[in-house]
Amino acid sequence: MNVTFQNIKGNLDMKIIDFYGNEIWSDAKEIEVLENSSQEFYHFPLDKIDKKSTVLIAKFDDKTSYFYFAKPKELKLPKSDIQQKIVKTDKRFSITIKSNVLLKDVFLFTEEKGHFSDNFFDVLPNQTKTVFFETKTTKLNDLKIKTLNEINGFY
Predict the structure, then answer these.
(1) Can you give the residue range of the structural domain that contains 44?
(2) What is the mean pLDDT of residues 109-119?
């Protein structure tokens, strides 16, 4: 939907993957959306996929959005072995997170005073996400990562 008063033109890449990163469907094309309008660019029969185990990734130019076909509590999220790397810089920590499966609603927590650059996000399978923790502390030993994948507790 284009709610602006100008035409928007760009590259639309769409892909449906399962929570392990296997591609189920993909397509890409150059599109133009007329001002103050909406129109359909793709039609995909949803009865062909497991709605509780897939995600649609839509990229339009430099913006990416994730669309799920079921409510979060209904998703069949696999357990994950989260890998994390924490690096101290001058005024902050760089925290890189990776998993072999989709991580839904990642939440970072520490008792240390500071501010995360991002929190409550998704990480696609076999991709990394880097978050910065702005703080005056010199150690970050108690970082906890919680996801919807592991609803029963912290990693």
Answers:
(1) 8-74
(2) 96
